[in-house]
Design goal:
Strand content: under 5%
Shape: globular
Number of strands: 0
Largest sheet: none
Distance between the termini: 49 Å
Helix content: over 70%
Amino acid sequence: MAKTSMRMSAEERRESVVRAAIVEFANHGYNGTSTAAIARRVGVSQPYLFRLFENKRALFEAAVRRCTEEIKQSFLQAAEGKHGEEARHAMAEVYFELIGDRSRLLMQLQMYVSAAAAEAAGDHEVGEAVRTLWTDLWDTVAAASGATPEEITEFFAYGMLINNLVAMGFPVDHRLWQGFGKDYLGCPVV
């Protein structure tokens, strides 16, 4: 009987590399992550990695794009058929599920830190890529919910605070969660 090959296509391998990059960048940041570590995680050589992605920046941008696109698509799906506060609440609920994946949460935090560090070092391309994706996410929430600019600002402000509280490991019964009210605390906080 012939043995079937389980070889991955280039697109499947590219997908594996992006997933591995998210984990590595999440844990070590842009500057602290080596492409060698990403290649090892996937089980490919560095030269192969660079056939898939031009350079480390392109790989980081692909990881950032994937992370924000997953959030965006989850928000759109959660808000479907809803409007206003109901849509925003549905997006908040799904967001708590998303950040249950610690790599996704930490990747978001690393996006912001890495963009700021790159800007400070004169590398404006990384910052511009992150800002463009962030603006698209902001606009998506605004369009999906029909919320005012003030309501969108509040939505993202709560999201950023939630990111930090979860990343630092504050339990849901800690007093710092008290200001969120029942709408947010009804969500499954990790």
